[in-house]
Amino acid sequence: MTLSPAKAEEGTAAAEPERWSILVTYGEDKCPESAEGEIVVCANRPEEERYRIPKAVRDKEKEEEAHYAASWTAQFQNHEDEARLGRPNSCSPVGSNGFTGCQADMLRDWFAQRNIDRAEK
Q1: How confident is the model at residue 3 (pLDDT cuts 50, 70, 90)?
Q2: pTM
Q3: Domain residues for 88?
Q4: What is the pLDDT of residues 34-89, one digit of tens each?
Q5: Do 49 and 92 share a domain, yes or no?
Q6: Residue 33 in contact with residue 40, Cβ under 8 Å?
Q7: Where is the domain boundary, 32, 48, 69?
Q8: Are residues 65 and 82 in the same domain?
Q9: Alpha-carbon distance 22 to 43, whole Å?
Q10: How far apart are alpha carbons 67 and 77 in whole angstroms?
Q11: Do 103 and 80 share a structural domain?
Q12: What CA–CA distances, in Å, run from 34 to 37, 65, 79, 106, 108?
């Protein structure tokens, strides 16, 4: 009598548990006992961490704070710069009358260059 690999695996494989529980306990708390068809995995942390915000969440909050560390004035100016592209007199192909700002933009550049040239003489 020969056994096929499938039949051999059926005879030796353990039944898959119906339920998995992964828990974190704090201080002297006991890990609950597992029932039949259940696997319970526990990690124990110190008592002082029981009511703390988890480290992963704390680190994420620090990253968000660093992202918004600029002053309100700088944030407002950045928003204005982005919104200006779609407004009239923006010298942009986007938005209504965006092309009307091109001449004003060229004049601002010309006056700035003229002032630089005069300062160099």
Answers
A1: very low
A2: 0.36
A3: 71-121
A4: 888 889 999 999 998 888 888 888 888 777 777 666 777 887 877 877 776 667 76
A5: no
A6: yes
A7: 69
A8: no
A9: 8
A10: 16
A11: yes
A12: 8, 42, 56, 77, 77
